[in-house]
Amino acid sequence: MRFVSVAEVKNQFSRYLATARKKKQSIVITHHGKPYALIQPLTDRDLEDLEWKDFARKRLSRAWEGEEDALYDYL
Fold first, then answer.
1. In 3D, which of 3, 47, 51, 48 has the Cα closest to residue 25?
2. Are 10 and 31 in contact (CB under 8 A)?
3. Strand 2-5's sheet: what is its strand order?
4. What pTM was computed for the model?
5. Pairing mode, strands 2-5 and 27-31
6. Which candidate, 26, 38, 40, 53, has a CA 20 to 30 Å from the CA of 20?
7. What is the average pLDDT value for the chain, to the nearest integer?
């Protein structure tokens, strides 16, 4: 994993994208020294996983819509 500032990435964005893809290396973008964003190579499988997670999140939120959360009410 590599860390670079927003300013560095701004000036050479294409280079960092290519590095992430070719070296299969994640790059953490920092802003004022703190993690801000992530450049990470993706595969088709990664995208499928993200779609399923999003699908599951939407289905669960609809399933619980209108339900009161007794646990939080108790606390």
1. 3
2. no
3. 2-5, 27-31, 34-39
4. 0.61
5. parallel
6. 53
7. 84
